[in-house]
Amino acid sequence: MDAQQSGEPDATAVRTALWRALHTLIDDAPHVLDDTIGLRLAGVDETWRERPDMDPVRTRPNRASIVARSRAAEDALAASGAGARQLVVLGAGLDTTAQRYPGDVRVFEIDAPATQAWKRARLADLGLLDPARLTLVPVDFEVDESWLSAATEAGLNPATPTVVSMLGVAMYLTRDAISATLRQAASLAPGSMMVMGFSRPIEMAPAEIRPLLEGAAAGAAASGHPWLSLLSPDDAVALARGAGFAEVQVVTSEDLHARYFADRADGLSPVGGEDLVIATV
Ligand SMILES: C[S@@+](CC[C@H](N)C(=O)[O-])C[C@H]1O[C@@H](n2cnc3c(N)ncnc32)[C@H](O)[C@@H]1O
Q1: Domain region containing 199
Q2: Which among 155, 13, 181 is positioned nearest to 95, based on CA atoms?
Q3: 6, 169, 176: which to mutate for ligand 1, most atoms within 8 A of CB?
Q4: pLDDT tens for the 281 residues of the chain, in order
Q5: Residue 101: which residues within 8 A CB-CB, separation 6 or more?
Q6: Strand pairing of 247-251 and 86-90?
Q7: Using a 6 Å cutoff on CB, does residue 168 contact ligand 1?
Q8: Is the CB of 91 under 6 A from ligand 1?
Q9: How far apart are the CA of 111 and the centre of ligand 1, in A?
Q10: Is the CB of 13 inside a 6 Å radius of any atom of ligand 1?
Q11: How far apart are CA 183 and CA 202, in angstroms?
Q12: Measured from the CB, is residue 196 less than 6 Å from ligand 1?
């Protein structure tokens, strides 16, 4: 059933939160990201680790990719030259940067209304809703509605450098919706930065992980969240340039491996998972 109709959280958002928790719970330290708050938010029963999509061995590449992209976005925020004090998380799901990030930043989470309403209630239940730190703004990217206008109305200052992340979302959007979200980010103050994850067409992935991706694509379609936009790196760069960003670079899953996984002895690797476009205004 569609999350919009049921008031349930988006199933893909719950899954990525559980993968982040699984990384902390079962992978060797040092962890690329430590996030078990998403597991508390998900509120699943104790059998969650028996879910087929939580298979600890088969889904290693998935959870490696999920923690790598979140870590890269947080590192981009930490490194933002102008010292961005605003973070916009597009398609936030069960993202917990607002609860974990150690720096002084105001977070605006944009998400589909039903998933966000559910999250607001969960945050409140757990005593984690801090309005000084986190503002929740409901927007559907596929509706002709500007996330930037909605966030600005909710208190975002578009005239100050801002980091915008959009992780694990582009594949679920039409190209038009991706372009529109990028154009709005590109209209932010100079020095602002967008970190957008994108997935390549399956035939561009390493042969050994294609079956995993094909299974994931079929599962996504069956659960009512079909993959609508798979992008080559050239395609993703063209979309970001077309949206008006001054500088655009791609950080591939191989780059993420080199950055965060090269020294690991356990073979965990995000290669074949999401690549990132890092685009600067
Ligand atoms: C796979 S989850 C990723 C969540 C989070 N960014 C993460 O990395 O864990 C996809 C998210 O995109 C959101 N999303 C998908 N389509 C959307 C739309 N048309 N408008 C707003 N949000 C959307 C979903 O509600 C969900 O929270």
Answers
A1: 3-280
A2: 13
A3: 169
A4: 344 445 689 999 999 999 999 999 999 999 999 999 999 999 999 999 999 999 999 999 999 999 999 999 999 999 885 566 899 999 999 999 999 998 889 999 999 999 999 999 999 999 999 999 999 999 999 997 899 999 999 999 999 999 999 999 999 999 999 999 999 999 999 999 999 999 999 998 888 888 878 888 888 888 888 999 999 999 999 999 999 999 999 999 999 999 999 999 999 999 989 999 999 99
A5: 74, 77, 87, 107
A6: unpaired
A7: yes
A8: yes
A9: 6
A10: yes
A11: 27
A12: no
> Is-contact 130 113, C-beta < 8 A?
no
Find, among 15, 38, 69, the residue nearest to 220 by Cα: 15
Q: What is the CATH number of the domain that holds 40?
A: 3.40.50.150
Residue nearest to atom 14 of ligand 1 (CA): 91
61 lines ligand 1 (CB under 6 A): no
CA 268 to CA 63: how far, in whole Å?
9
Q: What is the Cα–Cα distance from 165 to 88, expressed in whole angstroms?
A: 6
Q: Give the pTM.
A: 0.95
Whether 93 and 136 have beta carbons less than 8 Å apart is answered as: no
- Which of 129, 128, 123, 147 lies closest to 137 in space, CA to CA? 147
Distance 143 CA to ligand 1 centre (A): 14
Burial state string for 39-54 with b = 16 or more CB within 10 A and e = fewer than 16: bbbbebeeebeeeeeb
Based on the structure, what is the number of domains in the chain?
A: 1
Ligand 1 closest atom vs CA 143: 19
